[in-house]
Amino acid sequence: MRSYLLPSILFITDIVTIVIVAFISLFIRFDGHIEPQYINQMVDALPLLLISYMLMFLIMHLYTRIWRYAGMREVLAVFVATTIGTALFYSSMFVFGKSLPRSIYFITWFLTTGAVGMGRMLLHYVALHYSSGDDGESGQVNTLIIGAGDAGATIAREIERYHKRSRRVIGFVDDDMFKHNRLMNGFRILGSREDIPALVAKYKVEEIIIAMPSVKRDIIQEIMEICAPLKCKINILPGMYQLLDDEVLVSHLHPVSIEDLLERDEIQLDTSKVETYLKDKVVLVTGAGGSIGSEICRQVLCVKPKKLLLLGHGENSIYLIHQELRNIVPQATLVPIIADIRDKNQLEQIFKNYNPDVVFHAAAHKHVPLMEIQPIAAVLNNIYGTRNVADVAGAHGVDRFVMISTDKAVNPTSVMGATKRVAEKVVLGMNHTYDTKFITVRFGNVLGSRGSVIPLFRKQIEAGGPVTVTDPEMTRYFMTIPEASQLVLQAGAMGNGGEVFLLDMGEPVKIVDLAKNMIRLSGFEPNKDIRIEFTGLRPGEKLYEELLTAEEGTNTTTHKKIFEAALEDVNQEWLSREIERFDTCKTDIDVINVLQDIIPTYAPNHNV
């Protein structure tokens, strides 16, 4: 049937239905013995009845809805339309001095609601049954869903409606014993996770879906250990804080990755505090094309800023994040800005043109080995660039300035870490100069960032190995990019100026264990199919990362995943003089010496 004909057909069908229902109502009211006068009254009342109902059907958009995708909202629309339509019919009969037995109104409402509602639902199920379904695979894949909660129910329902040509839901698995052998959405809860191997064999399961976006990651790890030997395709829903619209869809499913195994518990944000300083404000993000900067832009966009300024040095990365954000929220005001934070005059012009209220400073050189061989580049970008952005922000009356720092700034052994530690001191000192609230947020490695070890491991595994690990004992703190970015926004709301906040990074992860897990997730055995090779520490690298220096203590905050470092005082006049010494440096060794004078705990590691 041509889709454009359907509204007209429904319109005519509803008119016929209402007329038939009207006379059935009379038949029911008088037990089949209808006196002619009541038939005449009903015929006389039909125009008012049709106008009342059809007007409400039009107002409630019953002819513009796509009934194939009908749900409770559409059922409610039918109920509201017939209820108000009946009230309108009764009122118009009173106004025009016409009359019918009062019970007729109730019977007519009841029958019309049922007939129209059931007709729409029949249309819904017919459309689903004859829909073309997926365009992809032919034949159904037997699918087992782990997690009989809201997310699992939604996934099962969506598969049944829109993907049944490619998937066939076998049932659910859930550790809640009280759910076992019960039905949910027509599918049985077949057992607990220990039963997965037997269920896979019994029902010839080809795909397992882990539909538990809020579950602790150690449970995901246990499920993966059970499922890994079964040779099934395993897909998972991302964590709830990655589902920005809180909507669960089959399109959100992805193969289990190392990020899923290392991801931690869902973050509870104080959204009202975040909205207070970001909603309807002009927000500038430096380094907006980078891993952290781009995710901060995505998170800020959710809070509905007045304007979002995307500042970066690389035109391609700024173009990509601008296009992405424009597709997500077309009505948002986004301004891509290609600029170098080392150029203070250019920054002055940008702040003068756009007058930002909040600045997130994520721009920095972060690659440890590269900065070891080009220390002056790290100084110019990480120290001078940060000083430029902070100084201009303060001079233009920015309300809050939030700098992104790193755990490598603590007792640094690398040029990158040392320059970021100096940048922290610069930002801290700005609080004594301006009214702007200058805040620093310090955290460790983020999963999937361009400088992370994980993309490197992926490439090495795809190439057949070896996977190179620095040292068997090397550990790192990890968190996901969305988690880190959300906590940065929360810390920005908590700060009053002069704080260095530390994000709870959880437990450190052994890099060699990370490599082994990634090899297994790719379907190989470590040191059997793909070899792990230890290369030794590179210049500037540490075996272990720290979040606090020996001089710093830590204080709790109102958020359980954010702590505040108790910092030593910074003599700003002395710091400014020391930074100016970089201008006279002629060699890399000169740069290292100045860094060591500013940061006494900086102990360069030049072991190859």
Write the layout of secondary structure elements.
Blueprint: H1 6-29, H2 36-59, H3 72-95, H4 102-130, E1 141-146, H5 150-162, E2 167-173, E3 183-184, E4 187-191, H6 196-203, E5 207-210, H7 217-227, E6 233-236, E7 254-255, H8 258-262, H9 271-278, E8 282-286, H10 291-302, E9 307-312, H11 315-328, E10 334-338, H12 344-354, E11 358-361, H13 368-373, H14 375-395, E12 400-406, H15 415-430, E13 437-443, E14 445-447, H16 453-462, E15 467-469, E16 475-476, E17 478-480, H17 481-494, E18 499-503, E19 509-510, H18 511-521, E20 532-534, E21 553-556, E22 562-566, H19 572-580, H20 588-598
Parallel strand pairs: 1-2, 1-5, 2-4, 5-6, 8-9, 8-11, 9-10, 11-12, 12-13, 13-18, 14-17, 15-20
Antiparallel strand pairs: 3-4, 6-7, 16-19, 18-22, 21-22
Helix pairs in contact: 1-2, 1-4, 2-3, 3-4, 9-17, 10-17, 12-14, 14-15, 15-20
